[in-house]
Every structure is written in structure tokens, then in C-alpha cells.
Specification:
CATH architecture of the domain at 23-157: Alpha Horseshoe
Strand content: under 5%
Oligomer: single chain
Keywords: Signal, TPR repeat
Protein name: BatC protein
Largest sheet: none
Shape: rod-shaped
């Protein structure tokens, strides 16, 4: 019996708590709606700053207030604050429970993205809107425009990418040419320096060579050597060398002397024979 009484008290407490919670939620929803209503009136008066404050109050009272987030997003869009508008409309699309509410939120998101030249993102937004309401011709028409815009932007990006690559290639070629030119200049400069060094060495050698030359410009050592060699050559020229198959002058001289001696001997013999055959006078002629 005691257990039953406790259970009854607990159920009554839960029921009372639920009623209080429901009353609180209903009160918050009513306040949120009131703020949204006031915000809509301010929008009609073109007082978007005050309208934004009322919509924020509505969301603060009821974070799931679809009307508050949706209308705040539209207010941002009218002011030209596209990023804030997309954020609030995405919030409305997330908390929306009906397809009609989701369709409106995504449709407006696509429109705002098109305004911001974000065509590729707009295509996805319009697709999401059509999933929730395939019969909306306006959304389908906007989807076609978004696709065409996205294609043009992609082509432009590709062109810019190619131009950038070409520019980078040109800059690389220009840099390579500049480096090659600098290397050539450095090489030419080095060649000139080496040439100057060689010239200095040549001048030095020439000077040293001049020190070794006499007044006539001939090398001293060479002249002395040449003089010595010249005397030797002169002597050799004065004493001709025997040619193969011929007698030397000395041999000819010896041969002539032998012939003269032989001839003299023959002459003497002939004279002796003449003397022997001549009659000797014994008496003198007076």
C-alpha cells in the first residue's frame, strides 16, 4: 500500500513537471513568434537593424525557431551580408521539419550564393531544394543558370592556371637565360684575366730573354755556342772528308810524290847509261 502511494505521488509529480515543461516551451514559442512578428514589421519599415535584433531575440527564446533563423537570414541578404545570411538559412534548413521549409531555405541559399559568385556551391544548394520540392520550376531554372555559371568559372580557372604555368615557365626560362648570361660573362671575365696573366708572364719571359741577348738582339749563349760551333765547322770544311770510291788529298799527294820519285829514279838511270856510252876526252883542245 505504501509502495502504491509512492508510485502515485511520483506519477503526479512527473505529470505536473511535464505540464510545467510544456507550458514553458509554449511560452517560449509564443515569445519567439512575437519577436518574429515584430521583426517582420520592422523589415517592412526597412529598419533592418532593429529587425535583426528582434529575430535574434526569437532565436534566443527558441533555438529551434525556424521562422526566426529563416527571416534573419533573409534580412542579412537584403542588407548585403551574404555570409551571415547563408549561415542563418543553413541553420533554418537544419532545424526545419517539413520539406516545404527545407525547400525554401535551400532555394534562398542558392540565390545568395549566386549573388556572391559562388556558382559551384549554388548548384548544390538548388539540387537540395529540388530534392524537397521537385515541382518548383523556378528552382530548376536557377539550377540551370548556376550550372552554366559554374562551367564558365571552371574554364576561367583552368585558363588562369595555364597562364600562370606559362608565366612561371617564361620566368624560369628568363632566369635560366640570365644565369647563363652571367655565367658567360664570368667566364669571359675569367678568360680575360687569364689572358692578362699570360701576357704578363710573356712580358716577363721576354724581358728575361732580352737580358740574355747582346746588342745585336741575338742570345749571348747562342752566339758564343754558335761561334764555337762555327770555328769547328770551319775547320771541318777546310779538311774535306773523303768521298766513298775517291782518294783523299793526302793519298793523292803521296801518290804524286811516289810517281815523282819513281820518275826521278828512271831519269837518273837513263842519265847514267848516257854517261857510260860517251867517249871521254883525255886531251884538252887548245
Amino acid at each position: 500500500m505504501k509502495y502504491l502511494a509512492t508510485l502515485i505521488v511520483l506519477l503526479v509529480s512527473l505529470f505536473s513537471f511535464s505540464q510545467e515543461e510544456e507550458k514553458t516551451q509554449l511560452l517560449a514559442l509564443k515569445k519567439a513568434n512575437d519577436f518574429v512578428y515584430e521583426g517582420n514589421n520592422l523589415v517592412n519599415e526597412d529598419d533592418y537593424v532593429s529587425a535583426e535584433m528582434e529575430y535574434r531575440k526569437a532565436i534566443s527564446e527558441n533555438p529551434k525557431s525556424i521562422a526566426g533563423a529563416y527571416n534573419l537570414g533573409n534580412a542579412y541578404y537584403t542588407k548585403g551580408s551574404f555570409d551571415e545570411a547563408v549561415f542563418r538559412l543553413e541553420q533554418a534548413a537544419t532545424t526545419a521539419t517539413s520539406k516545404s521549409e527545407k525547400h525554401k531555405a535551400f532555394h534562398n541559399i542558392g540565390t545568395i550564393l549566386m549573388k556572391g559568385k559562388k556558382c559551384k556551391e549554388a548548384v548544390e544548394a538548388f539540387k537540395s531544394a529540388l530534392r524537397n520540392n521537385p515541382a518548383d520550376d523556378e528552382t530548376r531554372y536557377n539550377l540551370g543558370l548556376a550550372k552554366e555559371c559554374a562551367k564558365q568559372q571552371q574554364d576561367q580557372e583552368d585558363q588562369n592556371k595555364d597562364d600562370k604555368e606559362d608565366k612561371n615557365e617564361d620566368q624560369k626560362d628568363e632566369k635560366d637565360n640570365k644565369d647563363n648570361k652571367e655565367d658567360k660573362e664570368n667566364k669571359d671575365k675569367g678568360d680575360d684575366e687569364n689572358k692578362d696573366d699570360k701576357k704578363d708572364e710573356g712580358d716577363k719571359d721576354e724581358k728575361e730573354g732580352d737580358d740574355k741577348k747582346d746588342d745585336e738582339g741575338k742570345p749571348k749563349d747562342e752566339k758564343e755556342d754558335k761561334g764555337k760551333d762555327g770555328d769547328q765547322d770551319k775547320k771541318e770544311q777546310q779538311q774535306p772528308k773523303p768521298q766513298p770510291g775517291q782518294m783523299s788529298p793526302q793519298q793523292i799527294k803521296n801518290l804524286l810524290e811516289a810517281m815523282n820519285n819513281q820518275e826521278q829514279a828512271v831519269q837518273e838511270k837513263m842519265n847514267a847509261e848516257k854517261v857510260k856510252g860517251v867517249k871521254v876526252k883525255t886531251d884538252k883542245d887548245w
